[in-house]
Structures are given as structure tokens and as C-alpha cells.
Predict the structure.
Amino acid sequence: MIKEYIFGKPFETYAVVDRTGIITEVANEDVAKRIGFKKDEADRALSPYGGITWDDSEYVMTYAVDMGKDDIVYGLGENIRGINKRGWIYESKCSDDPIHDEFKSSLYGAHNFIMMSGEKVYGLFIDYPGRVIWDIGYSHINKMQVLVCSENFKLYVINSEVADKKEQYRDIIKQFRKMIGQSYVAPRWAFGFQQSRWGYQNQGDIEAVVENYRKNNIPIDAVYMDIDYMERFKDFTIDSEKFPAFEKFVSKMKKQHIHLVPIIDAGVKIEEGYDTYEEGVKKNYFCKEEDGNNFVAGVWPGRVHFPDFLNAQARDWFGNGYKVLLDAGIDGFWNDMNEPALFYSEKHLKEAFDEIETYKDKNLDIDTFFRLGNIVRGLGNNLGDYKSFYHRATQPEGEMLVRHDHVHNIYGYNMTRAASDAFKRLVPHKNILMFSRASYIGMHRYGGIWTGDNYSWWSHILLLLKMLPSLNMCGFMYIGADMGGFGGNVTEDLLMRWTELSMFVPLMRNHAAAGTRNQELYRFTDTEAFARLVNIRYALIPYIYSEYMKAVENNDMMYIPLSFEYPCDKYAVNAEDQMLVGESIMIAPVYTQNATGRYVYLPENMTMVRIRAVNDYELTECKAGHHYVDVALDEVVFFIREGHALPLAGSGQYVDDIDVGEVTLLRAEGSNADYELIWD
Amino acid sequence: MIKEYIFGKPFETYAVVDRTGIITEVANEDVAKRIGFKKDEADRALSPYGGITWDDSEYVMTYAVDMGKDDIVYGLGENIRGINKRGWIYESKCSDDPIHDEFKSSLYGAHNFIMMSGEKVYGLFIDYPGRVIWDIGYSHINKMQVLVCSENFKLYVINSEVADKKEQYRDIIKQFRKMIGQSYVAPRWAFGFQQSRWGYQNQGDIEAVVENYRKNNIPIDAVYMDIDYMERFKDFTIDSEKFPAFEKFVSKMKKQHIHLVPIIDAGVKIEEGYDTYEEGVKKNYFCKEEDGNNFVAGVWPGRVHFPDFLNAQARDWFGNGYKVLLDAGIDGFWNDMNEPALFYSEKHLKEAFDEIETYKDKNLDIDTFFRLGNIVRGLGNNLGDYKSFYHRATQPEGEMLVRHDHVHNIYGYNMTRAASDAFKRLVPHKNILMFSRASYIGMHRYGGIWTGDNYSWWSHILLLLKMLPSLNMCGFMYIGADMGGFGGNVTEDLLMRWTELSMFVPLMRNHAAAGTRNQELYRFTDTEAFARLVNIRYALIPYIYSEYMKAVENNDMMYIPLSFEYPCDKYAVNAEDQMLVGESIMIAPVYTQNATGRYVYLPENMTMVRIRAVNDYELTECKAGHHYVDVALDEVVFFIREGHALPLAGSGQYVDDIDVGEVTLLRAEGSNADYELIWD
């Protein structure tokens, strides 16, 4: 059962699309009090808050609830920390920040959905596109306080009538997922291995990558084109020196079963003669400052304008921009920098230079020197800048002027919606790969996401694992992290362990930043091991794709915390580093350097699969309980659930090369469990 | 057996003080080749290197060795990553950098000692005070390459004749420790709990802290005075507005059994009329630029000079500075910012301002905008600045002019030596607490270290644990990390888990940075639990102090990796998150948020101690093997070794209050194991 509480006059985010069975109440003071909301009286004695710029005047409504010692809070989609979100303070604010450490409070997405598992089990979705703070046991270890910076928002409380706790969890998730609409379905080739690097400069670089992968028998389906393919970072352009015959090149690659996937940035370069810029200006499709001038921010090309993606006409216009690439044969895109990331605003930058000048020739001490650093650091993604521009948002009742910070979290979402709508118009019979960096609940209908600019850190293997279920809860099904890490320098063992997790994730993309160590899979000592591992991935694709499709169709999760499936098993309830993937298997990846194995908890009897290559594996029956499992660096260990079977195909050098006619069913000895494959 | 190989004309660091039994060879080309050293031909195909500024011309000599798949490399003292250092590249360069994440290559110390455990087991100490790079399986997963940026250094290779592997490890460590001299012994009160915060402004703040601890029955022995106690950050001054009668205040605190521990910074403020500054200038005791002018850097007070700690007269002079505080009754100090940290150099800052000016009113794009950030970020701890000043180092053959970067790693060491020598001169009958941030091997004779400006991160609990044995290997016995984390905002559960590890560590100090959440132990919901935990610490102090004293006297380790004690047990060999503390116990702290327990490996039968308060505990006999152990947030679980006993005293509100007459011996049922207490 879903109850909707309407506070004030909410902005329509289009997060909720299926209103079947929703019971609506307009929240007057009595109602607000009953559900635990009140005009903000949050206890802030324990400020400051981690990573959050605190402005008391902004927080208007607070939802406060006491938590039992063992209550668990699931959710918040793309975020740091655990599957259990307790013990930190999070901010829903799409943020371009590559340092995903424990101290952060936001990543690129803003996903205001949690499920509380305590005396009562219920889901809570706050549909508000501005700032929401989730203080989940940070200020007080046993209190949750949710602060909303507005009097205008919708709150959804989802309860389940089902008695069984296990069914309750899934029922609440399914109700929520149904309400927000079915998830985007990625094309099947996008489940193949994909290679990316910010640094491939031209078609020669890309061809060399493909050649190396093919030569080493490492399957691959796609190569990405990061910002350097464009003419000076201008959207919908192709640098003709680097790609002298782009369309031919796309077609040549396709013959080798390689899809090229270019990046599209949110900001449009300010440059006379550049058609996208000129048309945007002419038709008033860019975000504006209070005085009516187009807002000027700095991103890759320097000064840009931001398309007003909240405006339906602007969306149509920007969406049409993809046509030039679609026409060239491109069938996949990633939308980036759409939080929107801004290095600086023109206005703020001027002020910064003026202030810096006042420090010249002074004795810079503790205060003034740190201030100097803060001036420069404070230029990027500045809240003041987000408060200085406006949208002409298309709302059910017509066009509405709204300041960016109040709708910040749906900007990237609407960029991706623009692209997706355009694909339906322009290439209605094609399934285009689309994923985004920034997102909000609702965007899952238009594309997937990758988890942004992570690092070559061991902790980021585990972070990926922990995010998978919470992303699923919010409808994001085509998901993945930059394998090997985007920033920083990878080591061979890190990349190998990461490969052993990413092989179970829909988006398996190796991506790295310019200036970091080369991390294509053929760059290390044991290329043969990488080849074996990626071949195992391809043998698993029929399973991964089938489970993905089933989860999408049933509004269900593909990555399931053990606590959801075994809610009365105290070890399962607290398991944060292993999980079910689909109906048949449990994974427990190694994420610690120099580890030669790990502890695994089996909530029930399972069949252990130890696999080194598609044709080199053993099955071992294991009893429920705690186990220490040896896992060599170049092998993968996972578990098949009792009564279930795992289909293993014969690999292939690209997805269409996989022969599902030759599937082996892995299952417990003597089991006759079957498996339903989805493979059109 | 220790072999010393002398390359060129090494700078004398005084790291090695006991030459008994050392066999010396002067390393000509033949010798160099034999021991694996050669003129640098390191394979650098896989640059860039993590966090290291690479200048090919600097690296002169390389020691290269192949590693077997299962070889383990121990050592490098204060550092990031594991007990096993494989899989990363480290740089010996004392660094002021608070972000101790996986990606860094240096912390505050430079400890060039490793022990290789492979087909052969041997110790390796490179006595060179400039840059040394340890590429331990980074460029090639199975190669170690050590790069020394000089032709002048000493190499020590330590072998053991003992056949048994377990004895071999300890024998090698003891040989090395004997050679570098006995470790500093801290006063006993310094094993009590200590409270610090950058932010206590005056005596009222300190009194309030003490009152709160005493009121809540949380034992405490010391409060720290961070930089704000000084007059505008000038060494050896006390702000008389904040502390109007300092000597009286010190004495008042001492009556309450509280020791005050002020900070001393390396840089001396440039200010006419300030005696330390004026005397240093007059007597030429500051580091100089090439042209003979005193080098000007920026630190807390703004412009400072750096005392030339490598010069014996300058050391004496600076050491005498502590007298004003000793005279006031102070009996403990911490030396800070002595890498030396520099925010900027005067010269470099001027250039930065000039370059920033050229960017004004330009279109700042990907290249220029990032450059702007880099200009400001690059000001601090800049290698170019370290290359721009000189020491008049006192060497056996007389005074020697040496550029700072060639001796960078012994600067902090010699600041602490200056202090320690002064204490012996000025207060010969007193044992003064002294520890330092920067260090080099040899400094362990003069003081302890704390592990610098860590963060309120869960990962930093584990990092502390992993550093304990490698610090011991290098002679650092009085050690500890800022409990609860220095930077960032702590949570109650993080602080509690951290307390449960720090209670086993000599320096148990809660310290936090200005602007972060208050983290004194009485600031949270469960003050009573913190009180119970710190009382357990006090009950354990007789054991911790005894084991510390034994380890110091025997040149032995107090924190022992399981791999050292059980070298033939494959699970013990790879254990990175549990270890022996002294002869009687094994600890296995919980370091994961929301965890309700953890896995523990017992290499032999042990007695589990589950303790909630000094008088509230149970002993359980456990069999060797893998265990999952429940550990509630407010309790501690550790293990007593078979045939050993743990003395538990009756706690106390300060160390001198502990009654060792009332010791209970915890040991296995039926055991009559005894324990030798060291408590004068």
C-alpha cells in the first residue's frame, strides 16, 4: 500500500508515473505530525556535518524517527558506505566529485528512497528535486532525521500487507518500482566487455586497442570515445583530423563487432559559428541568470551555456543533436558532466581573481593562506553558482520559472530523458545504449548509470558491490563502475580482482583517466589470465542478461542483499560483502590486496563453483555456515543456490558470437533444477 | 650476520650506532653486482607512478630482485597499505599530507628497512637520507625494484644463521634493532588516556575538558596544547592572555594528575624582537639559500626560517628553547611540522601570483583551469623548494654544506634529537614525554611518533593496526594514531571501535582538527560505555607497559604479525587484521561500520576474553581454527595464548592510581601460567 502525502505545491519531477493504488493525502499540520514530519526543529547540537555546507535557513521540514539498536536502513541508491546506511549523514545533491571516500555525503545521483527495517518495515520516498539531508544515526546514533529544504514536496510511504518479512522487503521494492515505471533495457551487446580511456586520441588509437584485444583472445564488444573525439569539446562535433572518415570508421569497427560509444557533455561551448550554440541562443534554450542573460559556466571547452533540460522544447532540440552521430552509425552514448559539473562561473571567477590580488605581497599565515587555497577550490560546483541561474521548466500547468538549486537533482535526469526521447523519435526501431553520470529517481526509465569517476582503490571494489542492491532498489538496472578505477594508478592484482567482480555486473567497462597508468587488460604480465576471466564473463552473459531482463520485467532486483532473502538469519542480515545475483547464485568477491582467500557465509547449503576458465572448473557441495575459502588471484569462486541451476555458455569473442545452443547447466550433484533463459 | 656495503661517500645519518659484528665491504662494481645493485636501468615502461613526482635523472642506483608468487615483504615502518607491502610503490620522503589513502606513497616518516620472506629470509636497510623508491610489485607484479637517488649510501643486509623460520624473523629484527640502538622509553603516565584538540584556546577550555572526564569517571592523564597556546604560533612562547599564570596552571593541573603537553613547531617566526628568531639569525642557525640568505618558508605564523637541525650548535641552541616550558613544569612535548612542512616558499609564492595574473580575463578551459588549481596546490611541500636550501651539517669529519633534498628525511629526526639531548642536559633526572611527526630510523632513540594527521575514517582503524608491527621493526615503540581521527567528523560508533583498538596501543590519544565535530569521549550518547572501555585500558596498562618495557630492553617487537609466530600456517601467514600484542594476547579488533562481529583465525587453541568492564568479563576456551565472533559495539573481545597469562589490574582514574597489588591473572582454565610484571 502506498500513501502519498502532498506538502505545499510540489514541483513535478515525473519520478512517479504509475499512480495505480496510491492513496493521496494533502498534508496539513495534523497529517504532517502524524507521519513524523514537522517544521524543522532538528537537533543540530552536533554540527558540523560531514562534507555538507550548512545553512540553517534552508532546512524547512524534518522527518524524525528513533531507531532501535538493530534497525537497518537500506537505500539511497548511488552512495558511499554500506548496504546498511546507518552511521552517516548523506545529502541528496548530484555532485561531480571524484574522491569517493568515507567522508563524502553525495555522489553523482540523488536517490531519495530508503527502506527502514525495524519493528516496522516500510519504504520512504521523498520526491523533491532540491536538497534533502539524510542524517541516519550521525548526530545521534539511534535517530534518523531527514531534512527537506522546502515546504513543497511529496512524500510516499510504502507498506506491505504481506506477513513474511522476506516477502515484505521484495513487495515494498516492487510497489515502489512499479510506481516509478519500468527500467530502461540496454541492448544485449552492451553486456559484453567494453574498453574506455580518456586519452584515446584518434581512430588509430582505437584500432590498436581492438587489435590487441582480438589478438589476445580477450572478448570485447565496445570501445568508448571520451572528450577528445570532439572538436575542442563541442557537443555533436567530430574532430575530422582525428577521424577523417568517421562514418566509414564506425562501419569498419562494426564489421569487427565493435560498437563505438561517444561521450556527450551537458555544457555547450560558447563560440560564434558553432550551430548548436547559435541555435540555443536564438531559441532561448539555455539557462538564464536573474537578469535574463544566459548563465556562463566554465567546463572542458572553457565558457559554456547549460541547455535548459527542464524545458520540453529545449529537450527536443538537444535530443535532435544526437542525430549526427546516430546517422554515422553510432548506437551508444554516455551523458557526462550533467550534475551539471561546473569548474567555475564567469562571475565567481572574476571575484576570485580580485580577491587573490589582495593577498599579493602579504604575509600569508594560517588564515590567509588557507583562504587562498579555498578561493580556488571553492570555484568548482559552487552552491552559490547553482543559486544564480534559472530554468523555464515545463510543468503540467505550463511553463514555470525555477531557480536551479531547487531542481538541481533532475538536471542530468532530463538530459538523459532528452536523449532517450530523441532516440525513440529518430531511430524508433533501434535499441540505443544510453547511460548517464547524474541521475534522479525516474531517470532509470531512460538509461542506466555508471558510478562516475572512481579510483584505482581496493576499497572501490567493495563500494561497487555495496551499491549494486541500492541502485536496483531505485530502478537502476544497467549499472557498473569503471573497472580498475578511473583515477589513480592501477596494479595488476587490483585489476584482476576487480575483473572478477565486474564479470557479474551488466556494465563491464574498463575506463581510466588521462595521465594514469595504462590499464587495458593486455598491459600486464598475465594477459592470458585476463583472457580466461573475460571469457568466463561471456559464458555467463546468458545468465546475467536473463536475470537482468527478468528483474526489469518484474520490477525486481537482480542484486539482492542476503538480508532480504534470509531476514531471520543474523549473519545474513549483517553480510555486507557478499550477495545474491539473480535467482541462482551468490557472489563473494575478494577485495583485499594480497589476500589468498576470504571468509564466506552460506545461509543455506550451496554448491561452490571454482572456475579458472570456461572449461576449467570444479563444483563442491558446501554446508550452510561460515567458511574460509581459498581464491587464487586468477580464479573466481562463487556459489549456486540449492534447487537452482546456472547456465554456462561457450563464450565468444563478442556477444553475438555466444552460442546459447551449447549451454551447460551447473547445479548441485543430483539436482535436476532447471533454468529459464531469456535470449531472443 | 650483518653485512654493510658502502657506496661512494655516504652522508652520516647516525642511524647506526652499534657496529658490533658488522662486516663492512666497500662496494665497487663487482660487489654491487653481486648484491643485486646496479647503475640504474630500472624498467619504467609502466610509469606513471602513484603519487610520485618522477624525474628520471635523479635515480642512480637500483636494487632489483624477482619475487616468488608467495613471497612477503615486511617493513617500511610508518606507511600505507598492508603488513605485506607487496603491490604498490612507496617513496621514502617525509611528507606532510593528511590524506592517508591507498593512493599515497609516503607518510611522515622515512623508514628504509624491509624484511624479505621468500626462499631466503633477510633484512635490508638502506641508510640514505634523501629519496628512495620502493617499487614492490607495482611495475611488475613479481619484481621488487629499489631506486636510490644517489651514488653515496650504505646498504645493510641482515641474515640469520638460525634454522627455524620463526626464530629467523625475530633474530633478523633484533640484529637490526641492536645496530640502530635501544628505543626511547616514555614515562609511565604517558600510557594513560590523553585528550587533545586543535581548538582548545585557553586554560578554561582545558579545565572544562578535565572536569568532564573526571565527572564521568573516564580516566585521563594528559591534555594537549595545540598551536593556539603560543603567541601567534611562535615557538617557546605562551600567550599570556589565554594563560595568564601559566606555571600556576601547570601546577594546578598536575595536582589533578593531568600532564599538559604543548606542541613545538619546526619553523621559527620571522619577527623583529622575538628572541628565538633574533638569536637564530645572529648566530646563523637557520637554513640558507644558495646566496647565503636565510631561506623563507610559510607555515602557521606566515613567514618563518627553518632551524638547521643538522648542525650540532643549532641543535643545542634550539634544544635550550624548551627550557622555558620545562621550567614551568611541563614534562611532555610533541614536535610537529618537522618534515619540514611548508605551505609555500617566499620565492615560489611570488611566481605563483605572477602566473595567476596572466590567467585573468582569459577563457579558462581544460588546460588553463586545471593549471590554475595546480599552481595553488603545488605551493605546499614543493620538491623545488626542498632543493633550494642548505644545511651546514655536522659530520664526523667536520661541517659540511648539503642541499636539503639530499638529507630531507633526517630533518625531523634531528629536531627531536635536539629536544632529547636538551632534556638530558637540562632535566637529567626527569623522563620527558617526547614524540614527533617526521622521523627516520635512528630517531626512535630520542622519542616516539604518532602517525600524523589521519582522518575519522573506518579504514584508518585498520591502517593503525597494520602499521604497529612495521613501526616496531624500525625501533618505534612509543606509538599511536589520533584516536577517532584528526580530520573529518567522527561518529559515535567509529570512536568506540577505535577506542577498542587504541586501548592496546602505548599512545592512546584522542585528537581532532579545528572545525571538526567535538570528539571528547563525553560528547556522545553512551558516555558510560566509553568510561567502561577506558577503565579497561587502565586495567591493562600494567600489561601494556610491561610488554613495552620488555620489547624495548630486548630490542624486540611488541606487535607481532601472526606470520612471524606461525610462519608455516598459511592462514596465519596472510592474516592482516589481527596480531599478537606482547607474549600473552592476540587482538582482532572490529573495524567495519555496523558490524556486529568479525571473523578471527586462531593459529592455536586460545582463551577468548569478552570484556565489557573491568569487573564484567567472561573467558571461553576456543579451539584453533576459523571462528566468527560476535562483538557488540561496547565490548572488547581478545584472546589469551595457551600457556600464557594476562594481568588485569583494578583500573584507576590516572596511571599512578592503578593498584598493581590487586592484579587478577586471566588464563586458560586449569592453567598455572605466570606473568612477569615490570612496574617500578
Notes: The first helix of chain A runs from residue 29 to 34. The domain at 544-667 of chain A is CATH 2.60.40.4040 (Immunoglobulin-like). Chain A touches chain B through 78 residues (CB under 8 Å). Chain A has a mean pLDDT of 95.
